[in-house]
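Hey all, quick one. A colleague (J.T.) asked me to put the zinc ion job into the tracker so the inputs and the structure tokens live in one place instead of scattered across chat threads. No bug as far as I know, just bookkeeping. Sequence used:
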Amino acid sequence: MDIAKVIVDVPASSIDQTFDYRIPEKYQAIIAPGMRVIVPFGPRKIMGFVVSIVSHSEFSKLKNIEQVLDMTPVLTEELLELGKWLANHTMSLSITALQAMLPQVLKSKYDKEIVKLTNEPLEEELEMLFAGRDVITFDEFEQSNISYYQLQKAIHAGDVLIDYIVKSKITKKYITMVQPVREAYLLEEAYVELPHQAKKQKEMLAFFIQHPEPVEMKKLLAILKTTRSTLKALEDKNLLKTYKEEIYRNPYDDESIQRTVALPLTDEQQDAIQPINEAILYDKHDVFLLHGVTGSGKTEVYLQAIQQVLELGKEAIVLVPEISLTPQMVNRFKGRFGSKVAVMHSALSAGEKFDEWRRIHQKEVSVVVGARSAVFAPFENLGIIIIDEEHETTYKQEDQPRYHARDVAIHRGENHHCPVILGSATPTLESYARATKDVYKLATLSKRTNNMPMPNVEIVDMRQELHAGNRSMFSRTLKEKMEDCIKKEQQIVLLLNRRGYSTFVMCRDCGHVKECPHCDIALTYHKNTNRLKCHYCSYEEMVPVECPECNSDLIRYFGTGTQRVEESLTELIPQARVLRMDVDTTRKKGSHERILREFSNHKADILLGTQMIAKGLDFGNVTLVGVLTADSMLHLPDFRSSEKTFQLLTQVSGRAGRHELTGEVIVQTYTPEHYSIQLASEYNFNDFYKKEMGMRKKFHYPPYYYLVLITVSHENKVKVVQTTQKIVQLISNKLNNTSMVLGPTPSPIPRIKDRYRYQCMIKYRNEPHLRQYLHKIVDLFSEETRKDELFISIDMQPYHLM
Ligand code: ADP
Ligand code: ZN
Ligand code: ZN
């Protein structure tokens, strides 16, 4: 057993296989699958993952592994298998799939240190190497003659720890703890024997007779108003001992979180949780779709299911969309499970993320709450995986590996024989269709726990407003209701159903729209810098004073960015205090939370924002929700636009009247008759589902058909068209006659960063060999992709059709 099969860090399809390396003597006792190594590869030395260890190789001249990077595997056997599945499932490279499961820190440059955690002496050689120090560099260890096996043993015993130093930033902190080393009655004996004058020492002993648990040295000395010398005296008498404990950067202040206990469940919740608990208890993998209106107590169901998982000594993963991962949300889990909870959030620094990952890796926590990538948490004994707001498109990763967290969760659920819960007020058609066919088990929560009705929704036809001479973006009804609401000292949430980048510059004389010279997309106007920016490349320029086409000076800003809405809002209702939340105001770390906190403290009357305000917020004083343009999303070139509109309107309506006060919702639209707007206003998911399923069937879209989107890009337009054409021909020949291949067509954004983009779409119901065909076709172009920067991207089950 001295040969390692290694997947090397070379992102090329021609290299996408394992390579055999010989394991040098010194590493033989410690190496294991899931560890990272440095290996020679051609003229270079590169990183790789050991995926298995074998005794024979069919190759004769093997090179040696140069270095082993980890003393304990960073990927479990299960995650190695998952990586293989992921690569195949998403048509990405194995190395890309494996890398996706690890925190960023492990992919960057770092130095390693060995930290001594115990005050007891280590084994002789190691102790000599430390020579009284707490920390030594890993290099020092490597230059010594001490075996890796000895080091690994000390790590497993918890006596030392390998630390990663990223770009000279200290990634870890330690505190000194104090603990009695004798039993209480022996401490009491010592107490009696101590002379009178040793007052401070007596006080300290008395403290530990009452509180035998370890305590932080700094706190202890502060409580007893004494110094290190008192402690030293008792240490020398062998009554107390000190040791170092790692503390994690904790972005959430755990101690201030109010602890909660399980609530008695409502009948509906009880019916929903019962089969879930059964699956947990009997190690049964099932997927449950928990369809519950907003405020129906889905989260309480999650919490109690997790409780049961923890009681069985197992672990839980909870996925929450990035923007719903607010302190409010996190505190619900920390409030119930305290320090057993790790949080994986993209707003954490790389070091903080690494800490959280390590707490999971070292089995110090048993619950992780996080965004998409938390689905890869290296737990080994999973008891449940929960995906809240399962309809959110952010669960699909848009770069390689293009995975959907739902698919990964279900695959891991199968591996661990544990249930997967998908929760939503507006499930995706895909999931709901599976539930109606009993592929998933459906549980429904139809009532809010406080028995408050869902807020009444009024649809306002903006065309009528225009006819009545109102040219503003606020209808008369909305204006009146807002003023009324402010008068009553209640609060308002206003949703602008668009991203910030909808403000473009147009010439009023000739209609010329300023576009990015590198991408075929309008430039966005940024008021604070008075510049035009491209959101796809970093191009920017000053706003022109006259039209480059016709020299007219009638340049105007179009579209309704949040900035502009804010301006007109304060013009319309000068007394209103407005908080704006969009990509621009939340770019800085912590600003998202700050805005929410201010709103929650009633520092503003109106919270104005994009999509990001629609989710998960729970403010008791919000009684009015306004949607400015409900239909703007309906016109996007995306077959899911009706579904997304329905979801968004339902979500945002759920923000009103969540507690004692009743709420109401005003939806402004130019297409009031559209079924997704009508049915959302009635909270009628079932009819929406039926209607939309009819559309999907008619136009051959999911869930009736599966999709593959192939996008080709290159600087030369002719080459792009020809390549796409060729792909269409090749794949058409392979597929059966119920499948369809559409294209080539220009992508919705036909050029980005000077590269032309064409696409084709495959629609199919059953093509068991599709991935093989696609692999073969991509291989045909591998020469050009490598040498000529031809780029072919394959997105299995795409969510963004851009
Ligand atoms: P959802 O996740 O479905 O939107 P939540 O779990 O946030 O709903 O529940 C809404 C509110 O109802 C919360 O304030 C929660 O504490 C409360 N709640 C949930 N379950 C119960 C219950 N069984 N009894 C009383 N209150 C409950
Ligand atoms: Zn012009
Ligand atoms: Zn651009």
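Adding what we noticed when we looked at it: The chain has five domains: 3-107, 112-247, 258-445, 456-501+559-695, 706-795. The chain has a mean pLDDT of 88.
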